[in-house]
Amino acid sequence: MRKTSKKTASASRKARIEELRRAERARERRNRILTITLSTVIVAGLVGWGTYAINNANEKEEQQAAAAKKPVSGEKTWDAKKLGRNHVAEPVKYPMQPPVGGDHNQAWMTCDGTVYTQAIANENAVHSLEHGAVWVTYNDKAADADVKALADKVSKTPYTLMSPDKTQAGTITLSAWGRQLTVDKASDARVGQFLTKYVQGAQTPEPGAACTGGLTAS
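Structure tokens predicted for DUF3105 domain-containing protein (218 residues):
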């Protein structure tokens, strides 16, 4: 009887241990399945986000490229090939005011977001345009608030310069090499469009040329 009881107890313990082992193996399988499932979801999410980010970046690049080709509403253009690029020492008589290109002085005006409070020489400013700068000018019709707003914008934008020009017909004029836009208010959305498109834009004869180290107003 004792041997039978011991055998029965031993069998029960073995059965219990085996049951516990099966339960442990089942838990391990569930954990592996859960880990694999979560990993798959995370990877899929990362791949999806990466694809979205790439597509979004490509879409923005395409939009920017399209915007670069589209002219700013109201801008005037001149054939860049017909604008002289010789360095001269004497004053130049330009066919437009402010000029958008042509022969110019060998010294450029510093155009690193530089705001001049006095008029500057056309011949030096045109050299800045050749380097890819946008020149912002204004006459006496411009409101003080507009002049300040333009000065703030220019001072934050490398490859730009600004100065008064009492001789120009338009209130506010933005000039790049072979390109020009006239507006009445600094708040005109085309101001930002012109700067975005033509600061070191495709029209630049000498892209990357310096806008620092040039002449400065006294």
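Strands lie at 76-77, 112-115, 134-138, 160-164, 172-176, 179-183.
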